[in-house]
Amino acid sequence: MLSTPVFSGSVSxxxxxxxxxxxxxxxxxxxxxxxxxxxxxxEGRFDHLLPAGGIxxxxxxxxxxxxxxxxxDVWLISWVPDRSTELHDHAGSLGALTVxxxxxxxxxxxxxxxxxxxxxxxxxxxxxxxxxxxxxxxxASITGQERSLRSDPITGQERSLRSDSMTPHPTLSVHAYxxxxxxxxxxxxxxxxxxxxxxxxxxxEPEGPSx
Length: 211
Description:
Shape: globular
Oligomer: single chain
Distance between the termini: 31 Å
Strand order of the largest sheet: 1-2-10-3-6
């Protein structure tokens, strides 16, 4: 459970429910929820859900659910190098994220091609219905021969780093989906710069399998 209720139940005139949307929550609600979730992670409220011994997975993306109810589910995701989500949507769910540490790169479908943006620690993004994107951990700026000391965002301990593939320093983000995620569709960009759906999968796990 997050430290404060994720939704108070009161709806302002600027966020009154729209009958065309499947949820009473709006993008700004989800942004607030993910920001709150990130703060709770940093304050140690979810330490019991984190990887044992503070050893973050380096081979595959890792996630854990922080909160779930009828309106929204909230996830913490740890991203690893060279693994993307593949182009996908969130079916009938709205989404939002807050980057807790590290950086992400998003490629989103803009109608005639893919647009790239970088999301650094503290940045937020929301995803309306029909949003198609691919997300991955941003490449590290250090080279394989460089060494540096960085502070783990959860433990606060300094750790020596070599290359991006060896770093124990996690790239973390908190995601919220409303209504809770139930399916995702996947896409490819054709030779004619059009978007084509390749499959739909039933799932309640965030951002799909690593590719």
